[in-house]
Amino acid sequence: GQSLEQPSEVTAVEGAIVQINCTYQTSGFYGLSWYQQHDGGAPTFLSYNALDGLEETGRFSSFLSRSDSYGYLLLQELQMKDSASYFCAVRDNAGNMLTFGGGTRLMVKP
Amino acid sequence: GAGVSQSPSNKVTEKGKDVELRCDPISGHTALYWYRQSLGQGLEFLIYFQGNSAPDKSGLPSDRFSAERTGGSVSTLTIQRTQQEDSAVYLCASSLDSGPSGNTIYFGEGSWLTVV
């Protein structure tokens, strides 16, 4: 099976940089994804890493190290609207269902 | 459709009653997921459908929960004899397939279930 660990809560100030870590245990591996969920809303896809290294999409970047079973989401130039929950997720190498971590609640303060 | 559609958006039911929640995935998406999320909590996997394969039911919490997917499209999640602990938002999601593009799944807005 799969399990993922991420911090439950992170607080940062507007304009700052924040890193949300995710460690995972899985019987196989087929990629690490990140999703954002605002209160009362549906989760939405942010990024996906299948290979080691950094993927950049605007202010958001995601990193993966398969040898360490570790990844992180980096948010730069934080804005108030970035206050949300962020979930990492993995698939096993059978390409089956996506398992989510417990989520990290990010609070951005002025 | 343009996105994943779920109905009802809100449902209040009495303890012991049965409820059905419907999900209409994005057209052409072969993979369909049901997750449950309690207030302020993470996403709990319930069931996964992929094409014509047998569904992965490993996340269903009890035999009161069942789901079906007809014609490889619309899915219905049924909860029998509802209990107060079933109160949660039930999220449906779909994706193109189980390959790399399957890492991008698209969620509906959820069905908010309250059992009183």
Keywords:
heterodimer, A: 110 residues, mainly beta, six-stranded mixed sheet, five-stranded antiparallel sheet, globular, B: 116 residues, four-stranded antiparallel sheet, 10 strands
Question: Can you give a write-up of this model?
Answer:
The complex is a heterodimer of chains A (110) and B (116). Chain A is mainly β and 110 residues long. Chain A contains no helices and eleven strands. Chain A is 0% helix and 56% strand. In chain A, β7 (60-65) and β8 form a beta hairpin. Chain B has 116 residues and is mainly beta. Chain B has strands at residues 5-7, 10-13, 19-24, 31-37, 44-50, 65-69, 75-79, 88-95, 106-107, 111-115. In chain B, the strands form two sheets. In chain B, strands 2, 4, 5, 8, 9 and 10 form a six-stranded mixed beta sheet that branches. Chains A and B meet through β5, β9 and β10 of A and β5 and β9 of B.
SSE layout and pairings?
The complex is a heterodimer of chains A (110) and B (116).
Chain A lengths: L2 E3 L3 E5 L4 E8 L6 E6 L6 E6 L3 E5 L2 E6 L4 E6 L8 E8 L6 E3 L3 E6 L1
Parallel strand pairs in A: 2-11
Antiparallel strand pairs in A: 1-3, 3-8, 4-5, 4-9, 6-7, 7-8, 9-10, 9-11
Chain B lengths: L4 E3 L2 E4 L5 E6 L6 E7 L6 E7 L14 E5 L5 E5 L8 E8 L10 E2 L3 E5 L1
Parallel strand pairs in B: 2-10
Antiparallel strand pairs in B: 1-3, 3-7, 4-5, 4-8, 6-7, 8-9, 8-10
In short:
The complex is a heterodimer of chains A (110) and B (116). Chain A has strands at 3-5, 9-13, 18-25, 32-37, 44-49, 53-57, 60-65, 70-75, 84-91, 98-100, 104-109.
Content-based structural category of chain A: mainly beta
**What's the multimeric state?**
heterodimer
Rg over C-alpha atoms of chain A, rounded to the nearest angstrom: 13 Å
> With helices defined by DSSP (H or I, 4 residues minimum), what is the helix count of chain A?
0
- Stretches of chain A where pLDDT is under 50 for at least 5 consecutive residues are none
The pLDDT mean of chain B sits at 92
**Count of discrete alpha- or pi-helical segments spanning 4 or more residues of chain B:** 0
Describe the sheet with the most strands of chain B.
6 strands, mixed
DSSP strand count of chain A: 11
Order of helices and strands of chain A: EEEEEEEEEEE
* Beta-strand content of chain A: over 45%
Q: How many runs of DSSP E, i.e. beta strands of chain B?
A: 10
Envelope shape of chain B: globular
Strand pairing plus helix content of chain B: what structural class?
mainly beta
Measured between the Cα atoms of the first and last residue of chain B, the distance is 33 Å
The residue-averaged pLDDT of chain A reads 92
Measure the end-to-end span of chain A.
41 Å
The H/E string of chain B reads EEEEEEEEEE
* Fraction in beta strands of chain B: 35-45%
